[in-house]
Specification:
This protein is mostly helical and about 50 residues long. The chain has one helix and no strands.
Amino acid sequence: MSDLVIVKERLIFLASLISNLIESYENNFKIKIKNQQKKNFFLTTKFSNRK
């Protein structure tokens, strides 16, 4: 294989790695936001039921 083909394959591989990292980070961030929203919901319902 020529050097250009090897470089092209490595760039494609790196691009897919970066894409997967970004997707993983976004999913993790969404889960953290959902968990925080659940905590906030339960905290507000707990305190509003204490009247």
